[in-house]
């Protein structure tokens, strides 16, 4: 499959068929923590980045087999709302395969555009991100396209809530000493209260991201933040080990990764090519193996390489 991947074991969505609508890595942000890598095409231009008719053909062939899925999920190696054909594909699924729920995982930056809001209206669940409210934190953490303004993004999310009748799960990704300060947390809580999501999901790194200097927030700190956000509906989703309980989790893939890196340390892109796995799907298993202490990431000139963890190495990445 060229544009579909998985089904992926998703912590939030169960058995999820991924749909990737933009090439690697077309995005409106260049977040310092991104596990998919550095943004190479930083843009807010909407267009048909991949041919929609081909995506529809692939989806039709796959869904006609009546696969056992919890969700069809728009995500991938960039920002899905940048594809101007997103609404057409959502409508196709709803008109022809209404038994499947639709989710859109998005960085939430484009909902100030009324057309983007209209495109996602028939989805069942939207999972937008909002990592910062203050301008400086937003610029440092998310490194946006120069046309994007944080106030504009926030207003777009508030407007989205007024129009969208499905569920909104607002994700906040935390980086220590950047957006977990008292002032930023207070602003995030205030704005989250205005957006009114069904759930606020707190997340942090579970494998090394774009910048090696970025570290995960401790579980204790996440629990403190969750307590601070109450009585708003909040949960911590940074638990990679829970993916093993999902039916679509494939232990064979974990074994193939271990076998590959035991012979030669490899980057995520190397592994994606060798195992013919979409990068998003691969990342789920890399996170599991890191959490289990079976592999580790080592910074080298060509990037992050994954290798079998040294038996004497008890440190965490």
Helix content: 25-40%
Evaluate the radius of gyration: 19 Å
| Overall residue-averaged pLDDT value | 87
Major sheet details: 8 strands, mixed
> Approximately what portion of the residues adopt beta-strand conformation?
15-25%
CATH homologous superfamily title of the largest domain = Aldolase class I
CATH architecture assignment of the largest domain: Alpha-Beta Barrel
Give unreliable regions as ranges.
none
H/E topology pattern:
EEEEHEHEHEHHEHEHEHHHEE
Provide the CATH topology of the largest domain: TIM Barrel
Order of strands, main sheet, comes to 1-2-5-6-7-8-9-10
Number of strands: 12
Structural class comes to alpha/beta
Shape, please?
globular
Architecture overview:
By secondary structure, the protein is α/β, with parallel strands linked by helices. It has two domains: 4-239, Aldolase class I (TIM Barrel); 250-317, Winged helix-like DNA-binding domain superfamily/Winged helix DNA-binding domain (Arc Repressor Mutant, subunit A, Orthogonal Bundle), CATH 1.10.10.10. Helices cover 35% and strands 19% of the residues. The protein has an eight-stranded mixed sheet with strand order 1-2-5-6-7-8-9-10, with helices on both faces. A two-stranded parallel ribbon has the order 3-4. The chain has a two-stranded antiparallel ribbon with strand order 11-12. Helix 8 (251-263) crosses helix 10 and helix 9 (268-275) packs across helix 10 (279-291). The protein is globular.
